[in-house]
Design brief:
Helix content is about 20%, strand content about 30%. It has two helices and eight strands, in the order H-E-E-E-E-E-E-E-E-H. The strands form two sheets. Strands 3, 4, 5, 6, 7 and 8 form a six-stranded antiparallel beta sheet that branches. It has a two-stranded antiparallel sheet with strand order 1-2.
Length: about 150
């Protein structure tokens, strides 16, 4: 019985496989509550490396691929642009603010001392060069095709 209790006590300790900073989760609200296997309790972010998660509109997702380069400018970082490289594009869209978006993950290139977890900003990814008129016409024609399909069907 003593060994059983010791094993149960050993399973009450939480440890992350990486050194990092807790960026989400609050265990004070869960004291005494049962926990299911696989239930997310905390989100730990690596302390030394950063990643960028950007929402990409479903109309633009076909322009992106892993390995493309880009830049991000954070609201709290002034006008400094930070180089990024696209590492992953989520295979399934999610709804945010009434829009279907895909999550794009990117790695921050180089080391930046002024970055903090949870910053918000604007991401630009290098894709094929198009004129402003082409971009507007492409968006309008896509919307018109979807409207026509909806009305004609």
């Amino acid at each position: 019985q003593l060994r059983l209790v010791e094993r149960q006590l050993a399973r009450t300790q939480l440890s992350a496989p990486i050194d990092g900073l807790v960026i989400a989760g609050d265990l004070t609200q869960s004291i005494g509550a049962p926990v299911n296997r696989g239930q997310e309790l905390l989100v730990v972010s690596p302390d030394k490396s950063f990643r960028v998660v950007a929402d990409v509109d479903e109309q633009d997702i076909d322009l992106l691929a892993a390995g493309q380069s880009g830049r991000v400018m954070f609201a709290a970082g002034g006008h400094e642009e930070i180089d990024i490289s696209v590492t992953r594009i989520a295979p399934v869209a999610v709804v945010r603010e009434d829009n279907n978006v895909f999550e794009m993950d990117a790695q921050v290139l180089g080391t930046k001392n002024n970055l903090r977890h949870g910053l918000r900003g604007i991401v630009r990814v290098d894709v094929a060069t198009r004129s402003l008129g082409w971009i507007w016409w492409h968006r309008i024609s896509q919307k018109m095709r979807r409207l026509w399909w909806r009305l004609a069907g």
